[in-house]
């Protein structure tokens, strides 16, 4: 039956999406581990971390960014209040410079009294891991306070001895992520979309329902397939899921 | 122009007869705008109540009510006795002189161009938001309307107003429109919220944001677009009016 073939292709596409997310989360787990380890040894040495110490993370951040220039727009750690001795509010964040091959350090306004204050304590990608201990996928959304691009942000909490230290996060260009999945979603063979928890389309194979638009359950033809993350790697839950792949009614 | 050197033309612009009903509110707004624009310099004495009421073409009782409102806003000071009378008090705001200069130096054409572009960007952003805003986006927009309603200072009002329009473009899921909205807010946001010379009176701006948001929530893109275009157009028309008053002075 045609619908069985479709279900198989949809499952394959869902696995591919899951793999793409798993790869980014594996990197974030590694980055979070490095930051937590630095903090642990600073505690052992009774020598509180300073902002400049975070530059040690660059040795792993740089190759990760240059190795994925299309997909990974930026990555780094965002630090919780008063973890660092010299900076109450700080991020060690690197991104691809606009239109170039260079990497640039993200300079933001750390002064809470200023108009342009970069208030990450109200961003879902910081608040959800802090308050729940879960990982989170946010977006796609227009990231107007950071990169001005249409983005997905993935974040992983960093903690040590039950103290929340911040998050390790990555910005994924929504357009590049969609392009990566077009073949898999195209293989479904009829109009189909990948949508997030809120019904926002992340990728689609049809001009009638493009990325950024909303899709409702009533528009689905048959049951959607959930995107599942790799269960072995990480027991932590992930907020912002399930993402679903669904064929659309004609 | 300094406090005492206001030209006859400026005086004329400040006290031009009102044809819009002669309500105390309208009179107070006209005078506070004249102070914001510098048409009435800091410390400058206003004509006598009878004279001013005649020039503005309003009843003396209406003028008194308006002056009383301006006194409580600290824009007019009244002194009794010899050498007494009502005097204009310019808001103590360092940015005001800069804003007046910008407003004087811009041309009607430039203001019209900014308005045309802003209506196109903000109107389309509202249309797209009506199609694409998720409930989370609506919650953020609700918060921003409440923030504008609760904001007392010009700077806070400007920020809440600007954030609403930027968030509306972001809710439309368009990075390009969002970037353009940010650039437009940077260009004219301050002019729209001059201390004591707001282009759209604060309560009206709040009501218009609510109207736009109601249309977005209903998913009625055309209504959201029309309401937004009207809202933006109104602010620009007022800035053009301010510019003309300054140009005449």
From TrEMBL, chain A:
It comes from Tamaricihabitans halophyticus. Pfam families: MCP-like_PDC_1. CDD domains: PDC1_MCP_like (cd12913). The lineage of its organism: Bacteria, Bacillati, Actinomycetota, Actinomycetes, Pseudonocardiales. This is Cache domain-containing protein. It comes from the Bacteria.
Automatic annotation (TrEMBL), chain B:
It holds the Pfam family FCD. Residues 21-91 form the HTH gntR-type domain. It comes from the Bacteria. Keywords: DNA-binding, Transcription, Transcription regulation. CDD domains: WHTH_GntR. InterPro entries: GntR_C, TF_FadR/GntR_C, Tscrpt_reg_HTH_GntR, WH-like_DNA-bd_sf, WH_DNA-bd_sf. PROSITE patterns: HTH_GNTR (PS50949). One of its GO terms (molecular function) is DNA binding. PANTHER family: GLUCONATE OPERON TRANSCRIPTIONAL REPRESSOR (PTHR43537:SF24), TRANSCRIPTIONAL REGULATOR, GNTR FAMILY (PTHR43537). This is DNA-binding FadR family transcriptional regulator.
